[in-house]
Write a structure and sequence with these properties.
Layout: E1 9-11, E2 24-27, H1 43-49, H2 59-75, E3 79-86, E4 103-105, E5 112-114, H3 116-122, E6 127-134, H4 136-149, H5 151-182, E7 186-191, H6 203-210, H7 212-216, E8 219-220, E9 226-227, E10 231-239, H8 250-254, H9 286-289
Length: 296
């Protein structure tokens, strides 16, 4: 499992927007970084990104994978940004009405999160935290370099980088939850655009709400994919009381990791979903496209 040591967040601004928490930027040093913060990527997860499912692996290939994974931890500097906003109850439709579908609207930034799944995930939240993490332009340069020299190295490095940005998202997620707890709030699991029925088309407004381009150099293409590609965006509900179900919908907890590999978004599953037919992440499931499932 990815190990995360102390993570230092640099607070900017004395007060949050419209009553939300203060926006924060965090530089998350890698294994060799100064300041005591440590991010280690999950090797098992990176291998799963490569399609590993228990088959025997060549020792030389594993050794090369470890070299490249260590290079990711040593050379890359993940950056994260987050901010929280109150839910605009006047404009939010939890169940949909008058022929209009459900949507959650955030006060202070105007971000609209459409879809039944995200409305179920955030229902009852006092505030919603937005977070974005990226490995930055340095990772893009390394990916291009490896692609030009060795396609195998490019695949191995790309999988390791995907696991590292997930570790960064986990660290940012934990920081958001800790800051919320200090204010008497409880955080849900994170939920990313592109899963369930929350469309990737929210990405431009999402990044604008976070001012992510200026803060951490994260932007979005015309096709709503994140640039740099090894990046993650996610939504976290902040509640007055702990959720009986652990926070969030099944779709959020069970959505497959992997969006970070193609510039979409990613989040961690907590347990496998019992049935593909009822999983909100079924339409964009990477495992299903490969003829596999998360439940065996």
């Amino acid at each position: 499992m990815a190990g995360v040591g102390s993570v230092r967040a640099v607070e900017r601004g004395a007060a949050g927007r419209e009553g939300g928490g203060a926006p924060s930027d965090g530089a998350l040093p890698s294994r060799s970084g100064a300041g005591g913060a440590v991010l280690s990527l999950d090797r098992d997860e990176a291998l799963r990104y490569l399609g590993y499912a228990g088959q025997k692996l060549d020792a030389q290939l594993l050794a090369r994978f470890e070299e490249l994974a260590s290079a990711c931890e040593r050379e890359l500097r993940p950056a994260c940004a987050s901010a929280s906003f109150p839910v605009d109850e006047a404009l939010t439709r939890w169940d949909g009405e008058d022929g209009e579908g459900p949507q959650v609207v955030l006060a202070g930034c105007g971000l609209v999160l459409p879809g039944r799944d995200i409305a179920r995930h955030l229902r009852g939240a006092r505030e919603v935290a937005l977070l974005a993490c990226t490995l930055g332009a340095a990772c893009e340069r390394e990916l291009r370099k490896h692609a030009a020299i060795s396609p195998t190295d490019a695949l191995l490095y790309g999988a390791a980088a995907s696991a590292l940005v997930e570790a960064a998202a986990d660290a940012c997620d934990a920081a958001v939850a800790s800051q919320a707890a200090a204010r008497g709030l409880r955080a849900s699991a994170r939920y990313s655009p592109g899963y369930g029925d929350l469309p990737l088309s929210v990405q431009p407004a999402f990044l604008k709400a976070l001012d992510a381009t200026r803060r951490i150099g994260l932007s979005v293409t015309a096709g709503n994919l994140l640039v740099p590609t090894k990046s993650v965006t996610a939504v976290i509900g902040l509640f007055d009381e702990a959720r009986a179900d652990g926070g969030g919908s099944d779709g959020a907890r069970d959505a497959n990791r992997g969006g970070a590999r193609d510039g979409a978004s990613g989040r961690a599953p907590v347990r496998a979903h019992a049935d593909c037919a009822t999983c909100p992440a079924r339409e964009g499931c990477l495992l299903k496209g490969k003829g596999r499932t998360c439940h065996g």
